[in-house]
């Protein structure tokens, strides 16, 4: 059955919602979310008995309305998740169907389709059995790639039967959720439910901690060290420790001092000449002089943090050692990554999802990156790759590299559609995409923007101004293209991609609203603690969050104030990740360092850290076959039925508690929606 994007038109009521959403957006830009206008409580907790009785009907009506709003928000996320082949929590979906008086069916569940790891002895770079070319026509319109069966269909503007997103519909849906986060009664309700979840977990710990420990002790050959863990958020350019990078530079200088490695102003330079021009000797370098570690000076200074990617402050060394596209075809960078991958393979139980950059400056970037991957043989069974797209259109526009924002989107996504439609013409890219699990959107979220993304926003072809589009503008257009691409690839029997943006590390809480609609999972999510409504929605939908407390500690938030422990207690789906080991970690196993520090500072139990590790595998881009092997054959089921304690080392008591608590919260919403009064409003 063909999949279509359900479109809506803007009604008078929705225009009012849009106006309210614009006020919320403006308030967020002015950082007024902590003031009285957006305070956590707008309904007095202690009301006189007479007044309470007089307002009882009004309060019940208020409660019913806010529960309906939460229900609609969950339906909106489910719609966008299913369209893009992203995951949506099975338990939540079952309750939503119950509220609609429909039966949930397993065959209706939509899941990402990841390419399985090559079997032992199988060549991961094999270019046999590549699908035939379809020779479809491709054209970008309004920042979204449209697919046409042939030239005639293109002339008649009859695109191939795929779901194409509609900006107006997305703007209406975004406005609904934006308006919710400023509603006083909704904030009060969500805040109280979150407090209840926290208190309930403390009670669970007091009652069941020893029983959980006893259960774990009875499991043979499984403990925290040999459960699978995935570093769900790590950047390839900083995936090594500072000591590892220093040692690699020194060893490379020993063997390749006279090798030509850099072209500078038309002059070819050897490695020795490069160091001589920098007035330094590699043997005298220390981790301190390398100066790639973040510290106090980078706190709230993202510009200084970015400079830490340059060893000894020299962009030449970054170009030589940490780039894929350079004079030596990224050989040194590939060697470092392969050493990191070897360490992961030696540990056996650790996996990583490094980010590689595609900037959108040129359509040739994809071919260059895929050739680097295959020619340098970078594949590892313990690594899946994510493509990060920096939000730096303004820099390229200032250098006159791009005429408009649509050209940047075209350079990023059109090569992917071409490789999907005609894989025989793009064999290297076709093979590389097997091991790419998703896309990320990265940059400094704290950058200010005056433009509010709405259906009135200029189309990407019309965005010719020098300033950067807002976060939500980037997010929508990335999601829209990924959604169409995933449906096309699913039709061809190819792997699909997740959308996993950096979100909520800094800046406006409205970023988290955009991600709630479009993202499979997010990285950071710190600003959820500022919005009880969003935090509760992320809990109800079980949106995965990859958190990096050590990274946040150096950039935006002190470790003691990090909400990870609080999120874990409440039941949000959180995992631990390293972000940038080169900048934030000291040991050879940065992911274990992250777990160890969190466990020590927050006194996490074995069951806690194993639950976090299990979450990391669930939210990763590993294939269905890998997850069945690592978590158990029934891992898609919720609660204790989906937990194989022999593989995860997570107590069945804990899993049963999580499932029961989530069902309890969802039942409040469903019961309200199914009531007679609510049915009338819903229809």
Automatic annotation (TrEMBL):
A GO biological-process term: IMP salvage
Superkingdom per UniProt: Eukaryota
Cofactor names: Zn(2+)
One function term, GO molecular function aspect: metal ion binding
Transmembrane annotation, as ranges: none
Keyword annotations of the record: Hydrolase, Metal-binding, Nucleotide metabolism, Zinc
Catalytic activity from the UniProt record: AMP + H2O + H(+) = IMP + NH4(+)
Top EC category: hydrolase
Family indicated by similarity: Belongs to the metallo-dependent hydrolases superfamily. Adenosine and AMP deaminases family.
Name of the protein: AMP deaminase
Organism, scientific name: Amphiprion ocellaris
Lineage: Eukaryota, Metazoa, Chordata, Craniata, Vertebrata
């Amino acid at each position: 059955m063909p999949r279509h994007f359900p479109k809506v038109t803007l009604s008078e009521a929705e225009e009012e919602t849009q106006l309210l959403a614009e006020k919320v957006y403006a308030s967020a830009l002015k950082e007024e979310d902590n003031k009285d206008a957006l305070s956590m409580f707008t309904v007095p907790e202690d009301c006189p008995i007479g007044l309470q009785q007089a307002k009882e009907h009004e309060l019940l009506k208020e409660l019913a309305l806010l529960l309906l709003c939460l229900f609609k928000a969950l339906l909106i996320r489910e719609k966008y998740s299913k369209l893009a082949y992203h995951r949506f929590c099975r338990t939540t979906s079952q309750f939503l169907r119950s509220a609609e008086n429909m039966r949930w069916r397993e065959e209706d569940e939509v899941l990402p389709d990841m390419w399985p790891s090559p079997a032992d002895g199988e060549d991961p770079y094999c270019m046999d059995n590549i699908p035939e070319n379809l020779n479809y026509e491709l054209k970008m319109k309004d920042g979204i790639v449209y697919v046409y069966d042939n030239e005639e269909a293109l002339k008649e503007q009859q695109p191939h039967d795929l779901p194409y997103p509609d900006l107006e519909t997305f703007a209406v849906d975004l406005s609904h959720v934006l308006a919710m986060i400023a509603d006083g009664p909704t904030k009060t309700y969500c805040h109280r439910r979150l407090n209840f979840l926290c208190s309930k977990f403390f009670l669970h710990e007091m009652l069941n901690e020893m029983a959980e420990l006893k259960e774990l002790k009875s499991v043979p050959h499984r403990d925290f060290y040999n459960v699978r863990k995935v570093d769900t958020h790590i950047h390839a350019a900083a995936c090594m420790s500072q000591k590892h990078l220093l040692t690699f530079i020194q060893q490379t200088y020993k063997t390749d001092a006279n090798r030509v490695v850099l072209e500078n102003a038309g002059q070819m330079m050897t490695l020795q000449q490069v160091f001589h021009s920098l007035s330094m000797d590699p043997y005298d370098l220390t981790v301190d002089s390398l100066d790639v570690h973040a510290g106090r000076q980078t706190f709230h200074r993202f510009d200084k943090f970015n400079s830490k990617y340059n060893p000894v402050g020299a962009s030449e060394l970054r170009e030589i050692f940490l780039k894929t596209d350079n004079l030596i075809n990224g050989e040194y960078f590939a060697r470092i990554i392969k050493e990191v991958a070897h360490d992961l393979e030696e540990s056996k139980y650790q996996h990583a999802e490094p980010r590689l950059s595609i900037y959108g400056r040129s359509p040739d970037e994809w071919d260059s990156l895929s050739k680097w991957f295959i020619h340098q043989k970078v594949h590892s069974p313990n690594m899946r790759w994510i493509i990060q797209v920096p939000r730096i259109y303004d820099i390229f526009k200032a250098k006159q590299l791009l005429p408009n924002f649509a050209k940047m989107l075209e350079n990023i996504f059109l090569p992917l559609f071409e490789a999907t439609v005609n894989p025989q013409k793009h064999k290297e890219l076709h093979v590389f995409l097997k091991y790419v699990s998703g896309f990320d959107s990265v940059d400094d979220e704290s950058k200010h923007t005056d433009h509010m993304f709405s259906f009135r926003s200029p189309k990407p072809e019309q965005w010719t101004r020098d300033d950067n589009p807002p976060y939500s503008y980037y997010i929508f257009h990335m999601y829209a293209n990924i959604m169409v691409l995933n449906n096309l690839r699913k039709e061809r029997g190819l792997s699909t991609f997740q959308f996993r943006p950096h979100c909520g590390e800094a800046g406006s809480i409205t970023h988290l609203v955009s991600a709630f609609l479009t993202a499979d999972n997010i990285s950071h999510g710190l600003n959820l603690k500022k919005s009880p409504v969003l935090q509760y929605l992320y809990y109800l939908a079980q949106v995965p969050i990859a958190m990096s407390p050590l990274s946040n500690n150096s950039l935006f938030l002190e470790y003691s104030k990090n909400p990870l422990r609080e999120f874990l207690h409440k039941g949000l789906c959180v995992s631990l990740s390293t972000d940038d080991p080169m900048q934030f970690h000291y040991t050879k196993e940065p992911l274990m360092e992250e777990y160890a520090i969190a466990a020590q500072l927050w006194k996490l139990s074995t069951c806690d850290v194993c639950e976090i590790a299990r979450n990391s595998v669930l939210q990763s881009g590993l294939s269905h076959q890998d997850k069945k092997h690592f978590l158990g054959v029934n891992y898609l089921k919720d609660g204790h039925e989906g937990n194989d304690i022999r593989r995860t080392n997570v107590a069945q008591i804990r899993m049963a508690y999580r499932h029961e608590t989530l069902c309890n919260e969802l039942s409040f919403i469903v019961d309200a929606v199914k009531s007679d009064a609510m049915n009338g409003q819903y229809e």
